[in-house]
Amino acid sequence: MARRFAITVDTALLLAQDRAAVPDDHAMVAPTLLRSQVLSYLYAAVRRGEMEKREADLRLDHIRGLRIRLLGDRVLQRHAWDIAGKLGWADTYAAEYIAVTRLQADVLVTGDAELAVAARAFVTVCSVGALLGGDG
User: Fold this and answer.
1) Domain 3-131 indexed as CATH 3.40.640.10
2) Phi/psi zone of residue 68: left (φ > 0), alpha (ψ -120 to 50 degrees), beta?
3) pLDDT (tens digit, 9 = 90+) per residue, 16-31?
4) Residue 73 zone, left/alpha/beta (φ > 0; ψ -120 to 50; rest)
């Protein structure tokens, strides 16, 4: 069954770590900030000595090879602003993931427990297992 999944940065990083393949009938979307968050996370991991640069490059390449539609238009930004306001958040970063799910996806895939709890007020949340074809 084809589904559209909004993925968070932790999900993208997990897919890259495991070199996971997403079923062809599953489409992925994310806010454009995903690209910068992934790069920043991997850069910081290399700087801290937790990962070799070669491994970071391989993970970046894996993520770049995934079919993730990145979105960041005015409508998404307006929704993120409203969601962050309703949740009383200091910034809109996490709200962008909820907004992209509301606008373009069936479910949000995240391993971030706090985001999952907050997101459930707006969207359906699932684990990476559902994205990879399991029940999740």
Assistant:
1) no
2) beta
3) 999 999 999 999 999 9
4) beta
